[in-house]
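User: quick one, fold this
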Amino acid sequence: MLFPSPLAQDEALRALAEIRFVVDRTTRYSTFSALSGFVAGGAALLGSGVCGLLTDFVGAQPGRGMQFVGVWCAVLVVAAIAQIVLTALKARQRGAAVWTPIARTAFAALLGPGLAGMAGSAVLIHTQRWELLPGLWLLFYGCGWWSVSFFAPLFLRVLGVVFMGLGLAAWLEPQSAPLWLGAGFGGLHLIFGGIVLARYRQ
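Assistant:
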């Protein structure tokens, strides 16, 4: 019986590794920008009044109703613009397309929790249950990361679970809303940026 030589075996293993790399790139979304995570985290920390240290800041006071919502809408806009622009720049540096099939799949996975979160927010705003908004935002944001993790690196699933845990904690202790919002949208986004920087070096 003939066996392949060690050289042929090495070449076969290299070929399999290359095939696996190509398949992984086409089935998992990995065009993340570390800088966008840092921008989002910084904006969220400011929005939370640096986790409640700036107690007079409206973003740290759910009791001030629409002003509180306005601050966090501004944080969302800043984070979204940073994500879109910096991700597009990173894809261009790689010479890759931005709106790929896997990117569309990841967006679709985010869409359900995002729409549910907006609908829930509208109900709580209408009923003026401001103190429940931080928990709702964190919980559905965590659900979104959980969904995306099936088409992206698995560390997002862990972040999603932590976001959901912080959301539940925010419902249990609504008076500590600045802490939960700052730790979640601020601290976890900074951790996300650090992980991306370490893994992808961009």
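User: anything notable?
Assistant: Residues 32-200 form one domain.
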